[in-house]
Amino acid sequence: MSSRALAPEELRRRADPDALGFATTEEIAPADGLIGQERALEALKFGVGMDAYGYNIYAPGTQGSGRHKAVRRFLEARAVEAPTPDDWVYVYNFEEAHRPHAINLPAGRGCAFADACDRLIEQLKSGLRSVFESEDYRLRRQAIDDAFRGVQQSIFETMSAKARTQGLQLVPQKNGMAIAPLGPSGEPMAPEAIQALNDVDRKALQEKSKAILDEFSAASRALPQHDRERRQKLEALNSETAQIAVDRAFDDQFADFKDWAPLAAHLDAVHKDLLQRPELFLRDQEDDGAPLDQTFNRYRANVLIRQSPNRGAPVVYVDNPDVGQLIGRIEHVAHMGAMLTDFTLIKPGALHRANGGFLLVDAERLLTEPMAWRALKRRVRGCDITFEAPVAGASTATAVTLEPEPIPLKVKVVLFGSREILGLLAANDPDFEELFKVAADFDETFGRTPDCERAYCGLLAGIAAAESDRPISHCGCAALIDRAARIAGDRERLTLRIRLMADLIREAAYWAREEGAPTINAGHVTKAVDEQVRRVDLVRDKIHEQVTRDTVLIETSGARVGQINGLAVLQAGGFAFGKPSRITARVRMGAGRVVDIEREVAMGGALHSKGVLILSSYLAARYALDAPMALRASLVFEQSYGGVDGDSASSTELYALLSALSGFPIKQSLAVTGSVSQNGEVQAIGGVNEKIEGFYDICVADGLTGDQGALIPASNVKNLMLRDDVAEACAAGRFHVYAVSSIDEGIEILTGVEAGARGADGRFPDGTVNAAVEAKLLAFAEARRRFAESALLDGDGAV
């Protein structure tokens, strides 16, 4: 058998500080955070370089792997070389006010144009008032008004003279013109004198008065036309006068923008509107309490996207990707029971800021925001940015709405998420693979060769420079490399979960400051790790206390038939620790069934049930091949109250079953982990370090005897990075770790009895475990045959 207790150097791998080639990290160049990510880097280069529809990027990986920072640095380095996109402004639409125009300007010119619009308004407020208060304008306007009044006066004087020839006088009234008869003295007659006239004279007077009034009315019908002509002349005069100030203001403010074609139509519209509405600038403006400047906003510009010239393409990360944060929003203000808005209240979103560059979004956050994923897909697919209409019921009849002109969109979207989300999106959303054709998959670990260790030190140096106030010594780097291998769960690889390493370096720096040390050394790293564990290991200590106080029954000495110590890993937050469990097996004659009690009471998961079925198959195919399986066995995790899943205990359960069948007791000083195949191979499992350490801690509490240890799959040896105290105990012979490849190897260590191989005669050697197991199964089969015959005789009453 090849099973053996592992040598101390096999229990953990230690980095050699002297082989790193430096004294402190100040002597080496810091890495950029992308070491060991060649596959992801190549995908990023491809995705960024593919200027075609749908080649957006999904970056799967583990939280804390440093993907965000690494991708951002990568994109920012390339964005500097890219052309800077245009500024975009929204301006008033003089034809359809609810549909503001979007206009692009060269980078950095948007704010200059908006400032020019504001200065134009201020200049016209004083300039128009100045020209309209000039003496020339006053005289020309007076001449127009005098000409109209002259026409009015001519009509009045002509009709007054005619009325006097007939003894009448025209008398202006508030609502028109009246006729007064004149007496002999030429003065208007008193009412009493008029009443004293006889009927004939009175009637004649009335007829003359009516005729004069009718003639006056006929002559006055031309006055409205004259008044229209007066107003037209005044408008022409006002326009001519205003043009002086408007042209001057335009020359002063927009001289630098007249050659920019996209602005030409808008500036023409502004110019035309100003000439038609100069009176806006002549009225004394009073605050009517309205929250919007509805008089002058039509001439302003709302800078939605502003870029710095020659800065390159933008790289934008959106932390809260709801619809408003992604595509912008149109704000409203309340006024007298209504919700008002105009184009100046259009606010940009992340897509606006990232236009022409790169948008970085967390997939999980995006998918949890209502409508955000759909909104992003529509914008990327449509290659423009439009504002989403309010969801049904979210708006009111009194809300003013806008339909801003879409802005063309050219952006490369990078989604960060887990591989699980990647699988779900690919399987359930047909749009995903159309829009995100590139996967930049970030590895979680990095190979551990001498060259890789030195490269990893560059990564540590970069973290120390950014997160710490002191460098790391070569011994400190070696300790960090060892810890990185432990986090990776593989002594031949190093973790690329940068956040965990950054946390550890920050905390080690704290202990270095407390000690007054100029560098972070191995002791500070060890102290930081110990304190990290101490802050979160209360649950572990409570569970171990239950074992040491015999509340949970675990034996670390002696031997028992059908009883074994299994090893499991529990998770408390981000802290994983090992927990031993007692597993027992009972056997008797039956119908060939192995009962998994955990599954029977719905406390066993699918993987655990699979493991039990595999060991059942192993038994049926290995022993008593010429006889029916007449076994009834039961397996259970004693004192298990939270459910069991995973197949890492299947070999352990099989050992207990073999012990129960053979009658050979299992050493309780040993604990076991490993899954089993149908061929009896012991297979690798996860959490091997935590499992060994969990049993070791229980053994220390009971007292180390030198017989205690753990059995692990041989394929897990490469994963061993045990704590220093465990490795030291093994080196001193107080604890042992055995690596086994098969069930036969394991049962020999557990029982101290040879397993036995089937000979040429088809039998296992006497005195071996396998021989005893097969004998028991054959005995069960024979007993079942006799029982069946007895039952048949009793039923028939005859032989």
Question: Could you write a compact summary of the structure shown?
Answer:
The protein has 799 residues and is of the alpha/beta class. 47% of the residues lie in helices and 16% in strands. It starts with a strand and ends with a helix.
What does this molecule look like?
With 799 residues, the protein is α/β, with parallel strands linked by helices. It is built from 27 helices and 30 strands. The strands form 10 sheets. It has an 8-stranded mixed β-sheet with strand order 1-30-29-26-21-22-24-23, with helices on both faces. The protein has a 5-stranded parallel β-sheet with strand order 8-13-16-2-17. Helix 5 runs antiparallel to helix 8 (223-253), helix 16 packs across helix 18 (498-515) and helix 22 packs across helix 23 (650-662). Mean pLDDT is 84; it is low at 391-398.
